[in-house]
Task: inverse folding
C-alpha cells in the first residue's frame, strides 16, 4: 500500500513538472509569435517617403524619448514642439522652416547636445548624409 501511494505521489509530481514545462514552452511560442511592442510601434510610426523616421523609445507623464533619423531630403511636418533636449549621434546639414515662411540653415554635429525651447517649425535635411539623434521632449 505504501508502495502504491509512493508511486502515485511520484506520478503526480512528474505530471505536474511535465505540465509546467509544456505550458512554459507554449507560452514561449506564443510570445515569439506575437510582435514585440517596440516592433509594433516601429511599424505604426514607419515614415512615409520623404519624411523622417521617429521611433518612440520611452513615454510617460513627464517625458517622451524619440530615436529620430532624417535621410537626405526628408522634411518633417510643421508643428508645435515642447521644450526638448537633443543628443546628436550622426550630424548633418539642416534647414529650419518657420510658420511665417522664414528659414534658417544650421549644422548638427555628432556628439553635440542641445536644448531647444518650445516652438513651431519643420526641419529639412539639406545635406547628403542621414542624420540620427535622440530627442527628449519634456511634458
Result:
Amino acid at each position: 500500500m505504501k508502495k502504491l501511494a509512493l508511486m502515485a505521489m511520484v506520478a503526480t509530481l512528474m505530471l505536474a513538472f511535465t505540465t509546467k514545462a509544456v505550458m512554459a514552452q507554449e507560452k514561449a511560442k506564443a510570445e515569439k509569435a506575437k510582435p514585440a511592442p517596440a516592433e509594433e510601434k516601429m511599424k505604426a510610426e514607419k515614415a512615409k517617403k520623404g519624411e523622417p523616421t521617429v521611433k518612440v523609445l520611452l513615454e510617460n507623464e513627464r517625458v517622451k524619448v524619440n530615436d529620430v533619423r532624417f535621410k537626405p531630403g526628408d522634411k518633417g511636418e510643421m508643428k508645435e514642439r515642447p521644450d526638448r533636449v537633443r543628443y546628436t549621434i550622426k550630424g548633418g546639414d539642416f534647414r529650419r522652416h518657420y510658420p511665417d515662411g522664414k528659414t534658417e540653415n544650421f549644422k548638427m554635429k555628432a556628439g553635440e547636445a542641445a536644448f531647444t525651447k518650445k516652438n513651431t517649425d519643420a526641419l529639412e535635411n539639406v545635406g547628403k548624409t542621414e542624420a540620427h539623434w535622440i530627442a527628449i521632449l519634456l511634458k
Notes: The first helix runs from residue 2 to 33. The radius of gyration is 26 Å. The chain is about 30% helix and 40% strand. Residues 80 and 120 are 4 Å apart (CA to CA).
